[in-house]
Write a structure and sequence with these properties.
Length: 139
C-alpha cells in the first residue's frame, strides 16, 4: 500500500506571519491538529496544537495579538513521498516520533498529510501497534 492511498489530500499551508489566534481558528474549523507553514513556495515548518500551547500560551511573554506562526512553529520539515510504501512512512514516523507527516509529490509539492489516524484505518494491526508505541513514547 502506498502513502497516497491513505493520506489526507488537499492540505494548504499558511504564512509564517499568520497570527496564532488565526491558526487556532483554522484548526478548530477544519478539525485538525497541525498546520504546515510555507514561505517562498516551500515548506519551512509546522505548527501543532501542542506548539501553540507549549511555545505560546505557556510562555510568559505570550500576546495573542502579536504572536505569529513563526514564533511557535517547529522548524525543519520531515516529509515522505506520495509513492512511498506506507510501511516506510510509518517507520519514518516511528523513528522521529511524529504523529503527522507531510506528503510531497515528485515535483516536491505538498499534496497531503498522513497521520496516525489515517494509518489506523488502513495499516495492519502489528504495523499500527508498533507505530503508536514509538510515536507516543516519552521524549
Amino acid at each position: 500500500m502506498r502513502v497516497k492511498d491513505v493520506m489526507h489530500k488537499g492540505v494548504d499551508w499558511v504564512s509564517p506571519n499568520t497570527p496564532v489566534s488565526e491558526l487556532a481558528k483554522l484548526m478548530r474549523e477544519q478539525d485538525i491538529g497541525c498546520i504546515p507553514i510555507g514561505e517562498d513556495d516551500r515548506l519551512i515548518g509546522m505548527v501543532t496544537d501542542r506548539d501553540i500551547v507549549c511555545k505560546g500560551l505557556a510562555s510568559k511573554d505570550f500576546d495573542p495579538r502579536r504572536t505569529m506562526a513563526r514564533d511557535v512553529m517547529t522548524e525543519g520539515i520531515h516529509c515522505c513521498r506520495e509513492d512511498d510504501d506506507l510501511a516506510k512512512a510509518v517507520h519514518h514516523m516511528e523513528k522521529l516520533q511524529l504523529r503527522r507527516l507531510p506528503v510531497i509529490n515528485k515535483s516536491k509539492r505538498m499534496v497531503g498529510i498522513v497521520s496516525l489516524g489515517d494509518i489506523s484505518h488502513q495499516a495492519s494491526g502489528d504495523l499500527l501497534s508498533e507505530c503508536v508505541k514509538s510515536v507516543s513514547a516519552h521524549h
